[in-house]
Amino acid sequence: MSTFNTNEWTQQFDNFFMAPARAYAALSVDMTEKLFNAQLDAQKAYVDTSLAQARKLMSVKDAEELRSYMENQQKVAKEVAERLKSDADNVVSLQQDFVQKSQKITEDNIKQAQTAASKMGKSA
């Protein structure tokens, strides 16, 4: 008569399902935190730029200062465009890293399942 080993079954269940799920959940939480922080940094930079420009505009007193302000707007627009590109590149990089790490978790789980299946096949 054969006995059912619940500890072995529990360990296999954890190895095949729960451990990869925990690893993926941890990766997802890390990714969410990184994206959230990137968004906060970007928003702060855009708000700071907007407020600085509003203050400069409010300090304009004559036509010469207005002309200078308007000329500076081109520089500010270029800086904002560069910041947008940098922020987009950062998000793309974060997403690529997430995909690579997700694939690694999946590949490791598949290898582990194949190893376990081959061991079960040999013992049967």
**Whole-number radius of gyration?**
27 Å
Identify the overall geometry: rod-shaped
Strand and helix order? HH
Outline the biggest β-sheet: none
Strand content: under 5%
Number of helices: 2
Instruction: Measure the end-to-end span.
Output: 16 Å
Query: Which structural class do the helices and strands define?
Result: mainly alpha
Helix-residue proportion: over 70%
Oligomer: single chain
Total number of strands:
0
**Poorly predicted tracts of residues:** none
Average of the residue pLDDT scores: 89
Polypeptide structure, described:
With about 120 residues, the chain is mostly helical. The chain contains 2 helices and no strands. The two termini are about 15 Å apart. The mean pLDDT is about 90.
Give a short synopsis of this structure:
This protein is 92% helix and 0% strand.
Name the descriptors:
124 residues, mainly alpha
What's the helix and strand layout?
Elements (H helix, E strand, L loop, with lengths): L5 H53 L4 H61 L1
Helix pairs in contact: 1-2
